[in-house]
Write a structure and sequence with these properties.
- By secondary structure, the protein is of the alpha/beta class.
- Helix content is 42%, strand content 18%.
- The protein has ten helices and eight strands.
- Helix 1 packs across helix 10, helix 2 crosses helix 3 and helix 5 runs antiparallel to helix 6.
- The longest helix is centred in the middle third of the chain and has 17 residues.
- It is globular, with a radius of gyration of 17 Å.
- The chain binds D-malate.
- The site of D-malate has 6 residues, from loops.
């Protein structure tokens, strides 16, 4: 993996392949490995950039750098990406793909840095912000994670991340990634997601080709909600993967690869 200093933080990233740039933004509290199958498939034809976003995976931030109780906002992650692209010398527009929290960052990036992307793929995500109840639950969970570590969050999320048909080794692999993330980072992003902006009104203004993809059985960002997002975006294609849960990139790698490659190849 490469590293790049972004806003004083060392970010680790995959930068593989050559051709038009495609950026893959992971979900919460994960790292770039949730895109392993897509990195492999897409880098045969594209330059694939897969950062571990601030604090996650190998872009780890210890408590000395990120004090307990800090917030990492979705806007900060979007601006990190713009700075990262500058550092990599990428000034042409990218195709930006984000899953779940990565989708929140992708929509925020669209709002803040419109000229820097020419295609958007939103996977298993939502445009609405948190209801007050959901935001309060995140703040409570942030406190808990700071006291008890990531396990309570991880064990509450895992059953909702995958469909029952998911391969147990795949689930285990993701559980290890989640448990390995630092409590201060997990808590900081829970607080950041709780205060993120509502992007639903912006959907009608998205003027680049957009892929909206969801697992039929997604328990976190339901398929009906994502179909509604696709209907609101003028140039959107909607793909629903039968039998998949929220982690579509890991549960249905071949189908997600095919959907992304077809979408990216369209002019
Ligand atoms: C994710 O998969 O990134 C999270 O479930 C997003 C969220 O908690 O809203």
């Amino acid at each position: 993996m490469k590293t790049a200093m972004v806003d004083g933080i060392e970010l680790s990233l995959i930068d593989q392949g050559s051709g038009s740039p495609v950026v893959l933004l992971h979900g919460f509290p994960l790292d770039h490995t949730m895109w392993d199958a897509q990195i492999e498939a897409l880098s045969a034809s594209y330059r694939v950039i897969g950062p571990d976003q601030r604090g996650f995976g190998k872009s780890r931030q210890e408590a000395a750098v990120l004090p307990l109780g800090s917030t990492i906002t979705i806007a900060r992650l979007a601006d990190d990406l713009a700075e990262l692209l500058d550092l990599l010398g990428i000034d042409e527009p990218v195709a930006l793909c984000g899953l779940s929290m990565g989708g929140y960052v992708a929509m925020e990036f669209y709002r803040r840095h419109r000229s820097r992307l020419n295609k958007l793929a939103l996977l298993d995500t939502r445009s609405d912000n948190d209801t007050p109840e959901v935001a309060a639950g995140r703040r409570e969970m942030a406190e808990r994670v700071l006291c008890e570590g990531p396990r309570p969050l991880v064990e509450s999320m895992i059953p909702r991340l995958f469909a029952e048909s998911a391969i147990p080794e795949t689930v285990e692999r993701l559980r290890r990634v989640m448990l390995d993330n630092r409590p201060n980072v997990i808590a900081a992003l829970l607080l950041g997601m709780a205060e993120r902006a509502n992007m639903t009104a912006m959907l009608a203004e998205i003027d680049c080709p957009t892929l909206v993809l969801v697992g039929e059985l997604d328990a976190i960002t339901p398929a009906d909600e994502m179909r509604g997002m696709a209907e609101a975006i003028p140039d959107a294609q909607f793909v629903c993967l039968e039998g998949s849960g929220h982690m579509s990139t890991m549960e249905r790698p071949a189908e997600v690869n095919e959907a992304l490659l077809t979408f990216l190849a369209k002019s």
